[in-house]
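Z., the sequence and structure:
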Amino acid sequence: MQSYWMNTSTATAEVELRTMPMPEPGPRQLLLRVRAAALNRGEFIIGHGLTKAGGTRALGIEGAGEVVSAGADATRFAVGDRVMGRFAGAMSEYALVNETDVLPVPPRLSWEEAAAIPVTYMVAHDMLVTQGHLPARGWLLVTGVASGVGVASFQIGRALGAKVIGTSGSQAKLDRLRLIGLDVALLTRSANFFDAVMQATAGAGVDVAVNAVGGAMFAECMRSLAFQGRLATVGYLDGVLDAKVDLQALHARRLVLFGVSNKMVGEAQRAGMTARFGEDVLPAIADGRIRPLLDRVFPFGQVAAAKTYMESDSHLGKIVVSI
């Protein structure tokens, strides 16, 4: 089978197409014929947490496909079932996945739309529901709202009944997001949105802030929180790893600061997160209230071009590879 690998032995991450043996499922695994896989920016940033310098590894962490075979103890899905989930080596013709890490693909979704869901939408669910406790009529702030996780957070927030404020450096992207429900669009790449947030929320601040940019936005996001507000940090694409923490505000306003990463999540916890996502969010995807926003679909032979396009920062939503 054909499989893309990533070489990180140099200063940049480079992709390579290899011929690999067909994998065999373990007792609780499924073998998938992968039909589509999505790109994630953090996977290509060396030192980001997902990728370390030195060596090679199979590319791709989320996708969708049909079940080809199952291990002896894997009974949740049948051969031919359409599933989507988080799994290593998704940028391949075939891949193995734990049966607890995948969910059924709703009939209305294409393969490409299904592949765009598992990582970003599950991360957004973790931030807004599991840890964020976003109230139904609350306020949500999303920095970098045009990114994959930004769009997912905005869409889940709206599905929960919250009002959403989003920041982006592109007016064109903000205009498109306003057409699909973004309540307040702030054109900025800088940490200068506090006044606008206070104006939009009548001085109260936001119940949950999603920092999808990094340390440069941390203090301003924290400053924008309401009483008992929560700040989720999901990445540091700006490369800024240090940020000032206002301890007085943290103490007096009973704030909660938390991170979202799957790096240290164990198999049982990951299975629980997948099951809860299926209960909380999958029905809204199935009935069309949430629909993945695809920017561009590349063919399997153009993964390097898809990576280059992602790094240009011109996309809105997800970039997907059709396999």
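The chain has a mean pLDDT of 94. The radius of gyration is 19 Å.

Let me know what you think.
H.
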